[in-house]
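Minutes, methods subgroup
Present: GH (chair), OT, SY

1. OT presented the first of two proteins processed in the latest run. Sequence and structure tokens recorded below as shown on screen.
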Amino acid sequence: LLDLEELDADARSIAAGRTGRLKVGCFPTAGTRILPAALSDLKRSHPAVEVTLRIAEPAHTIAMVESGELDVAITYEYAALAHTWPASLKREPLIDENLVFLSPSAMVVSETGEIRAMSADADWISSGSGTAGESTTYRICADMGFVPNITLRTEYYDLVTEFVAAGLGVALVPALGIVSHDRVNILPVQSKWAQRSVSVVY
């Protein structure tokens, strides 16, 4: 009878969300900038909940939430590449962030921050081929009247920042992708496509 009472108490705790497992998906930048504080809050309010984490891009984590492999995912959507969300999922907006332009500190920055004049002939650094970040870079540059010469690609914005600081090129990155860097110029981008929304999907 005691075992049954304990089982009943465990089942009630799981049903109430006080204990159990939470399977979370997250893209790398949010994993660094958003998730630590969120999980810290969860640990304080629900100390018995066990969290497992999967780091991947939204194209993967959204499908995993839909299949039940994940309970929740932090995802993003670029303004230039809006897509339809599965009807079986709910989405709660977290933040809207702007994209910023990065250039080496040695590159002269005009008072008006005219990105086209600074970067039309520069080498560019982008996220991986075929990614939303790369497509958005092409879209923004097309609006400015040129095609970026992308010579280096990486999925990690911390690496993009270091590559820019080393003088290997210029880049467009989401604001979450960079906090500050003393060897990089950070400029706002005047484009309706220079935005990204971050959401929780479950």
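2. SY then presented the second protein from the same run.
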Amino acid sequence: PGPLPPDCDPATLFDWFRHCRDQQLIGQDGDRYDGYAYGNISLRMSRGFVISGTQTGGKRTLHTGDLAWVLHVDGAKNQLRATGPTKPSSEAMTHGEVYQTLPQINAVIHVHAPRLWQSAERLGLPTTDPAARYGTPAMAAAVRQLLTAHPTGGVIAMGGHEDGIIAYGTDMDEAGAHLMFAVSQAVERGEDA
């Protein structure tokens, strides 16, 4: 337990969390994922990043007490160090890989979009190896590999994480715009994101 970083201004994180909740891209549904909440969102800080806490996807809105400050990530060792009002999301290691691999990226949104995920190949979305399971060093390595090939921001699908999609950008609005564009492309092609 501890405070959030002094430079933490989570206003855009909170706005995009609500927007993703409204689109059912972050949430909680008793009929999906054994009733667990899904999705998370983060912002780079001058040191580390802040991320929505574990199982906060079901909340209608987030508050500062729902955030964790991740100070260090080591994907190869499956370790991270965090402080803050709550525990970080299980996908914090993946967010950390984005920030470590791409210094120009300052925002990450992880959502669950079943039909967008199922349409990833048809939409040309880069996709991690399905053998890499979520929350593992293998997923962190698979994400790192895709990010190296697609460094400017965008959307990737997590092949080994059912319905998992990651959007990333230089700021939260750019990450959100990438995500909404992918959703709109799925809808235009006859898919329901």
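Chair's summary of item 2: The helical segments are 11-22, 92-101, 114-118, 120-123, 137-149, 172-188.
Next meeting: continue with the remaining queue.
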